[in-house]
UniProtKB/TrEMBL annotation:
<feature type="domain" description="HTH araC/xylS-type">
    <location>
        <begin position="175"/>
        <end position="273"/>
    </location>
</feature>
<keyword id="KW-0804">Transcription</keyword>
<dbReference type="Pfam" id="PF02311">
    <property type="entry name" value="AraC_binding"/>
</dbReference>
<dbReference type="Pfam" id="PF12833">
    <property type="entry name" value="HTH_18"/>
</dbReference>
<dbReference type="InterPro" id="IPR009057">
    <property type="entry name" value="Homeodomain-like_sf"/>
</dbReference>
<keyword id="KW-0805">Transcription regulation</keyword>
<dbReference type="GO" id="GO:0003700">
    <property type="term" value="F:DNA-binding transcription factor activity"/>
</dbReference>
<keyword id="KW-0238">DNA-binding</keyword>
<dbReference type="InterPro" id="IPR003313">
    <property type="entry name" value="AraC-bd"/>
</dbReference>
<dbReference type="InterPro" id="IPR037923">
    <property type="entry name" value="HTH-like"/>
</dbReference>
<dbReference type="GO" id="GO:0043565">
    <property type="term" value="F:sequence-specific DNA binding"/>
</dbReference>
<protein>
    <submittedName>
        <fullName>Helix-turn-helix transcriptional regulator</fullName>
    </submittedName>
</protein>
<dbReference type="InterPro" id="IPR018060">
    <property type="entry name" value="HTH_AraC"/>
</dbReference>
<dbReference type="InterPro" id="IPR018062">
    <property type="entry name" value="HTH_AraC-typ_CS"/>
</dbReference>
Length: 281
């Protein structure tokens, strides 16, 4: 995976919005069966025991205990019990949106993992279920946090596997815009210039970009600039004015304001914090 792909995946994850609609841990019912339906939510199944059958798209599976399946939103699927002992599984139904898109339309990930003998996936599902029964005011936030942990685990372990993870193909015009930003973020990029790359009217281009990436074009450009500024602050001794010139924000006051808005720290404080936390005694 090249650096541009990594940045695009991180952009998606940074703008991810999740909502859990149902969850549980149980043996499936004796009538657990549905054929050729298309859900408007994603599903995670972590198989604990038993036997069953799944079909995702055109591919059939006979999941084994320990396997963790993703059944994506908007994909035709089926499931059924078999003649053997019925599945016992952890499960949850959830939406995962980046802008108007399902995360798993934007990322190519395998539909199942084999996490191995470690019990971390089970712990993560138990954490999610514990949040459901919580009565605290912050319970909705805790559920979202637990769901994000599950997605993060799935994506990271998928990336480490043979299939890997990569962003799904972006339309050629938008891909051209992303590449142009990565190559020219240090310049004074305008919406008109970026829209021309996409062959779209500027107003329509802004809407299309935000639907795809969950952020506006200018926010994306500035995010790229701040990421580069963070790297320069921690890897060089350049003055802030020199860093501003390199990342396309020569106005030091504006750079400081944008940097603090993004990180909560001024550039100077960020650099000092980095050096202190990485110094050895």
């Amino acid at each position: 995976m090249d650096n541009a792909q990594q940045q695009l995946i991180r952009l998606y994850l940074d703008n991810l919005q999740v909502h859990v609609t149902a969850m549980g841990h149980n043996q499936v019912w004796s009538d657990w069966r549905d054929l050729d339906y298309t859900p408007d939510y994603n599903k995670f199944y972590l198989i604990c025991d038993g036997e069953g059958w799944l079909k995702i798209g055109d591919t059939e599976y006979m999941p084994k205990p320990g396997q963790w399946f993703l059944m994506p939103q908007g994909v035709k699927q089926s499931y059924s019990y078999t003649d053997g002992p019925r599945f016992t599984k952890y499960w949850c139904h959830f939406t995962a949106k980046v802008g108007e898109n399902n995360l798993f339309n934007l990322l190519k990930v395998p539909v199942f993992l084999e996490p191995g003998a470690g019990g971390e996936p089970h712990c993560l599902f138990r954490e999610l279920l514990a949040c459901e029964s919580g009565t605290s005011l912050s319970a909705p936030l805790l559920i979202k946090a637990a769901m994000l942990k599950l997605i993060a685990y799935y994506v990271e372990h998928a990336a480490a596997g043979r299939a890997g993870v990569e962003p799904a193909a972006v339309s050629e015009p938008l891909q051209a815009v992303i590449e142009h930003i990565h190559l020219n973020y240090y310049r004074n990029l305008t919406i008109d210039e970026l829209a021309e790359r996409a062959h779209l009217h500027p107003n329509y281009f802004i809407r299309v970009f935000k639907r795809q990436f969950g952020t506006s074009p200018i926010q994306y450009v500035n995010r790229k600039r701040i990421e580069e500024a963070k790297w320069l602050l921690t890897s060089t001794n350049l003055l802030l004015a020199e860093i501003g010139a390199k990342v396309g924000i020569p106005d030091i006051s504006y750079l400081s304001k944008l940097f603090k808005s993004s990180t909560g720290l001024s550039p100077t404080a960020y650099r000092l914090t980095y050096y202190r936390s990485n110094s050895t005694i």
